[in-house]
Design brief:
mainly alpha; 80% helix; single chain
């Protein structure tokens, strides 16, 4: 009997292991290329959503041409992002310049703790680490400024994605000319785009609302640099589970440094926590519904995996990447089992392309 076409379980396992190793190597080795590309894809989706909103605007009772809408939405998105990053850089520089005042308040607080606990050297330890902390803050500002510089690369990626999007259908028709799967491929692509667009637009909206409400609460409570903490909250809100905890910790810890007042710190904690609960447990589930019911276990695994592979950038992108993979896997028979594993309850019907009548 011929064994030419027989594939044993061990061969399958070896093939999967080798494939995973190759993909992991590519992700790590080419991360300087892939990270801006993934960020560009996210910008592309955001621009598409903004363009969709601008389509409702009439000028002299005429709809704006698509090219005008595309240019306007692209410039608007990048302008808002550029201004936001520059505001953060300015706030970090302010934090650095006022570090002496903050450290003096903290040293006073630590001295009180020393007297209560009857221990020594807490204040001296902070004083010795002051230079290191200042350098860390300065490096953070430099890193952000450097990231703004990399936006030019992201911008060119986005530009070519926008130029190519009008040709995608044409290319698919050419590739699958005469193939009965042409319509299925087109529907699959549209479904992936639709679901990812919905997810990202809702996540952007809820993260923005969380950051905005947090900004006004911190402003009302007299916490300095509220724009910086609000931006950090907005950004970390994209990291599942631990992101909101870390985001809440930043302004709470800073309130201790600024005021060394327990009542003020509790007020900040309760205010930011109320916003996180309201948006994360009420607003977001209501808007997002059950469209992307990713398993919490898969979310955590994705968070750890992408964090190890791409660092903080990977953690921020982990949920969009895992959601994208689940959507793609759900569209094809051979990988539908993986999509079911990725889901929270095994129900992926909402992800599937609609069958023709």
């Amino acid at each position: 009997m011929s064994t030419k076409n027989i594939v044993t379980p061990s061969v399958k396992a070896a093939a999967i292991f080798i494939s995973f190793g190759a993909i992991l190597t590519i992700l790590i080795f080419f991360k300087s290329f892939l990270q801006p590309l993934v960020v560009a894809l996210l910008f592309w989706f955001i621009i598409a959503e903004v363009r969709k909103g601008l389509r409702k605007i009439k000028l002299f009772n005429r709809w704006l041409p698509k090219i005008v809408l595309t240019i306007s939405s692209t410039l608007l998105v990048f302008l808002v992002f550029y201004i936001s990053i520059n505001i953060i850089v300015v706030n970090i520089n302010k934090l650095t310049s006022n570090f002496d005042a903050y450290s003096a308040t903290l040293i006073t607080l630590l001295e009180k703790i020393e007297r209560i606990l009857n221990i020594d050297n807490l204040g001296e330890t902070l004083e010795n680490q002051k230079e290191t902390l200042m350098n860390t803050a300065a490096n953070a500002a430099t890193s952000l400024a450097s990231f703004v510089g990399k936006l030019f690369l992201v911008f060119f990626y986005v530009l070519f994605l926008l130029l190519e999007e009008s040709q995608i259908d044409k290319k698919l028709n050419i590739v699958y000319a005469g193939n009965k799967d042409t319509n299925k491929v087109h529907k699959t692509w549209m479904r992936i785009h639709e679901l990812l667009s919905d997810y990202l637009s809702i996540k952007l909206l809820t993260s923005f609302l969380t950051g905005l409400l947090s900004f006004f609460i911190l402003l009302f409570l007299g916490i300095e640099l509220p724009a910086l903490w609000a931006f950090i909250i907005f950004l970390l809100n994209f990291i599942p589970s631990v992101g909101s905890i870390i985001a809440t910790a930043f302004p709470v810890l800073f309130s201790i440094v600024q005021y060394a007042d327990l009542k003020q710190t509790i007020s900040v904690l309760l205010g930011i926590l109320a916003v996180q609960v309201l948006i994360g447990n009420v607003v977001e589930p209501k808007l997002l519904g059950n469209k992307l019911n990713l398993s919490p276990f898969v979310v955590i695994i994705g968070l750890v995996f992408w964090g190890v592979v791409w660092g903080i950038m990977g953690m921020l992108l982990s949920v969009p990447i895992m959601a994208s993979l689940m959507i793609v896997f759900s569209q094809f028979e051979n990988t539908r089992g993986l999509a079911i594993f990725f889901s929270q309850n095994g129900e992926i019907e909402m992800l599937l392309t609609k069958k023709e009548g």
